Automatic annotation (TrEMBL), chain A:
Protein name: DUF2975 domain-containing protein
Transmembrane portions of the chain: 9-28, 195-218, 238-256, 276-296
Alphabetized InterPro entries for the sequence: DUF2975
Keywords, sorted A to Z: Membrane, Transmembrane, Transmembrane helix
Pfam families documented for this protein: DUF2975
Biological classification of the source: Bacteria, Pseudomonadati, Bacteroidota, Sphingobacteriia, Sphingobacteriales
UniProtKB/TrEMBL annotation, chain B:
A GO MF label: DNA binding
Lineage: Bacteria, Pseudomonadati, Bacteroidota, Sphingobacteriia, Sphingobacteriales
Residue span(s) of domain HTH cro/C1-type: 7-62
Record's protein name: Helix-turn-helix transcriptional regulator
PROSITE patterns assigned to the protein according to its UniProt record, in alphabetical order: HTH_CROC1
Pfam families, sorted: HTH_26
Recorded superkingdom: Bacteria
């Protein structure tokens, strides 16, 4: 059976879908639930301890150390980042004093921690002082990571429910500055992943360079008057497909991270909105290239017909 | 394509070379070659008229429809 494609039919549908998705994303991003209000909670837990043991001796300008609590930052962090995965690590001690850090941070290996970073995953973090039913706050206590969240329990004897604040231990760490998930790994794993990421990064860079060169060659061909050629059509098609598929590939790879590290994920971990917000631009530009591809394909067909008319 | 171009048959009947036909019809050798080999997608009526005039034949002698 011969399958014939009707691209001219799909173009308005694709553009329509794009506009619908863009409108939907805009509405979702600007939507705030009208009925959501803070809840009363029973909170017997002590407040987060954001101070390192000898905070009193902290000198002015030493704010570097003040972030060592609650995994706010990772000292001398080193690693590489790609769009959906990366690595980081370095000295991090939740229980160490400033004096100890100042003298031991370079030589100590016990408090060196290594992580895989998942920049497109975050927790339902709320910075509000009030508690909402979906409030989640990350903190570290004695080198154990916790999520402080609202837990609803049914009262005995009556149908009323009480909201408690509870610390739930979690396996992941969290970069509160950049707001992304950190998966603890060994140094060897981190190094191996860095090798894979470097190879992946170089391959991606090479492909990107190839696309840019293709686009430049397309412009050079246009300036020479060689517009409607098979090469130009193939170049436009490749650029269009890459730009349109890139956000979907990123989304799939991001979902793959959830599958790979499913042991670390909890229901409080959500995908960063930027995955969708940043996808509109490449898809939009990709659609423009797709329209150009269709126009040039049609132009090539007309040129062939003209050339073969005697 | 179900349209067969019998230009070479008519040229053989009139004992005319491609170069001579090209010169007398007034189209390039390349275009005449496209027509002769059946690669042409369209033929202008004025070209057909010129060929028929030079070869002293009818359009049906040059073009033939074969139901595939």
């Amino acid at each position: 059976m011969k399958i014939t494609s009707r691209p001219n039919f799909w173009i308005p549908i694709t553009i329509g879908m794009y506009l619908t998705a863009a409108t939907a994303l805009y509405l979702i991003n600007n939507y705030t639930p009208a009925g959501q209000s803070s809840v009363e909670v029973v909170d017997h837990l002590k407040p987060f301890d954001n101070l390192i043991p000898d905070k009193a001796s902290l000198q002015e300008g030493s704010s570097y150390y003040s972030y060592s609590k609650n995994a706010m930052a990772y000292h001398s962090s080193s690693g590489i980042q790609t769009g959906f995965i990366g690595t980081t690590g370095g000295f991090n001690c939740d229980t160490c004093s400033i004096k100890w850090i100042a003298t031991h941070s370079d030589t100590d290996s016990r408090h060196r921690k290594y992580y895989i970073t998942l920049p497109l995953w975050k927790i339902k973090n709320t910075t509000s002082i009030f508690w909402y039913t979906d409030s989640v706050k990350f903190h570290t206590e004695n080198d154990q990571n916790y999520l402080r969240k609202v837990v609803t329990a049914q009262n005995k004897g009556n149908k009323h429910q009480t909201n408690y604040v509870a610390d739930v231990p979690v396996k992941f760490a969290y970069d509160q500055t950049n707001q992304y998930l950190l998966i603890p790994v060994t140094k060897t794993t981190k190094n191996n992943i860095e090798i894979v990421l470097r190879i992946f990064g170089f391959a991606l860079l090479a492909y990107l360079a190839y696309l840019i060169i293709s686009f430049l060659n397309f412009i050079v061909d246009l300036s020479k008057g060689l517009a409607f050629t098979d090469k130009n059509i193939a170049r436009l098609k490749l650029i269009a497909i890459t730009l349109i598929l890139y956000p979907f590939a990123l989304f799939l790879l991001n979902q793959l991270m959830r599958v790979v590290f499913y042991n670390y994920f909890t229901s409080d971990v959500i995908m960063n909105k930027s995955v969708w917000q940043n996808s509109l631009e490449p898809i939009g530009i990709g659609l423009v290239f797709f329209l150009l591809y269709r126009a040039f394909a049609q132009g090539k067909s007309l040129k062939d017909e003209h050339d073969l008319t005697v | 394509m179900p349209i067969i171009v019998n230009l070479d048959v008519m040229m053989a009947k009139r004992k005319m070379s491609l170069t001579e036909l090209s010169e007398r019809v007034g189209i390039t050798m390349a275009n005449l070659s496209i027509l002769k080999t059946g690669k042409a997608k369209a033929v202008r009526l004025e070209t057909l008229e010129a060929i028929c005039r030079v070869l002293d034949c009818q359009p049906g002698d040059i073009l033939e429809f074969v139901n595939e």
